[in-house]
Amino acid sequence: MKFVKNILAVVLIIVSSFAFAQVKFEAKVSKKKLGVNERLRIDFEMNRDGDNFVPPSFDDFTVVGGPNTSLMNSYANGKKTYQKTYSYFLAPKKKGSFTIKQATIEIDGEIYKTFPVTVSVTDAVDRPNGPPDASDIASEKIHLVAEVSNSNPYLNEPTTVVYKLYVSPDVGISSNWREKQTPRYNDFWSQNIEIKGLNIQRGEYQGEDYRFVVLRKTVLYPQKTGNLKLEPLVLDITVEVPTGRANIFGQQIMTQVPKTVTAGSRTIKVKPLPEKGKPQDFKGAVGDFNFEVTTSKNQLNATESLQAKVEVTGKGNLKLFELPKLTTPSSLEVYEPEHKENVRTDLNGMKGSISDTYTIVPQYRGKYPIPFISFSYFDLKTESYKRITSDEIIIDVVEGPTAAENRSDNTSIANTKQTIKPNSNTFAFIKTSSNWSSIKEDDFFKSTGFWSMLLLPFLAIPLAIIIRKEKDRRDADVVGSRIRKADRLAKKYLSEAKKNLGQKESFYEALERALHNYLKAKLNIETSDFNKEKIETLLSQRHVDQNVSAEFISILESCELARYTPITDVTMQNDYDKAAKTISLIDKQIR
């Protein structure tokens, strides 16, 4: 009996060890029944690490996210537990019953397969069935809002739209977000306000505490009346949602959910300017302005010049109207004016000055009046039209001919006849003799210099052929030349970023500076001119592929957001490699 008990104990140990070492690879779905407007999460879980994972085809679904990979190691009662998961997010294409086929993976040289999973897709539902999943939580905790300062402005009255991304403290967002759709402001004059860094702020959204960042600030001046539509800003982001589980260190395990968030379209109702009291010389100026006409000097001599400046200063749509024209007497010669703008734009609109400077040259002595000029504008504070009139300016030309003297001089010159005395030696300037002397030298055609110059081109022909062949060979290797040049450029601009790998702040500052310096060198634009729309437009004009441009923009956005989120060394290395690859691609494609 004792021998039998020993045998049974050994068998139990072997069976338990085999059960413990058994490989598990299975597919799990977030729900077996869902509406056609819902999303399905499917996880492929394994308890041993494997290679060559092959997902099913998902023919009846659209993959909207994934694969996302998560790892979990835990210890309980001295035993180690390992779990690796590949997650996909699926949107059903239609209603019906659908089977998700097998996934395969290779573990320790063996091929393992999951069982097929059948799900039922019903009519669209208002809310998901059962408790909310990670996708539902992400939808409730992330909000993109467009805040419009004035939804009922006058024509050419400034209004601002500020885009804010509100994030609940319960969730987070990763750095790999991008703009899926950029708003276009048809029927508006628009100016983007530069945002230096994405500063995380505290605020409230619908009565709850949220964190938010300002993504865009834009000043708009409506150019037509009526209901004008603002196209929405749409973002693709990855939301990190807590799973309710903790790792061996007690830290919350997060799952990543891809989401598309939109600010929605907004409508601005633009009022026309009143017709009552509108001056005849009104040119469309709206705001609060000062107006003056000045001259560099009021007294000068004939044929000297002076400058007359017509200037408007203040706050309003300075770039969107014409200045009144300067009128002068016909006796003053006036050149085309030089137009200057000194305008800055912030969230309150345009401020500064615009001017036309005329160069005036008087021809005759006398006093010449420059008549007054009037400037009209619509004052938003009083909602009425106002007119400013300049003073009359007298130009005193103290020295020079008068108009009457000029006519008299012309008449006398025309009527005066002079007696011309003929010159008997008319051709005296032509030499009729020379002092040349004859010289005698050896025959040049028999000299060493002659034969050297004759034979030298023939001797140079073989050398020229060799040089030409080498040049043709290098010119023919267009791809190789571009690759070498692109790689050199990437190393040149990214050298500082590479030195700071592992130091998050320093690395992303150097990476962002490298990207800006590269564009400044290639596109000849200043840092103050940088915005995403301009970069995309300029790269498109230089025949750079749209996907490459989008990749470049996404790297810049990652640099901005990475300063405020945890980043690993692997992520920094990936961003560095992506930047080097993108610079090389742009340099190969740009023309």
UniProtKB/TrEMBL annotation:
Listed transmembrane segments: 449-467
Domain of life where this protein originates: Bacteria
Coiled-coil segments on the chain, per record: none
Signal peptide as annotated in the record: 1-21
Keywords: Membrane, Signal, Transmembrane, Transmembrane helix
Name of the molecule in the record: BatD family protein
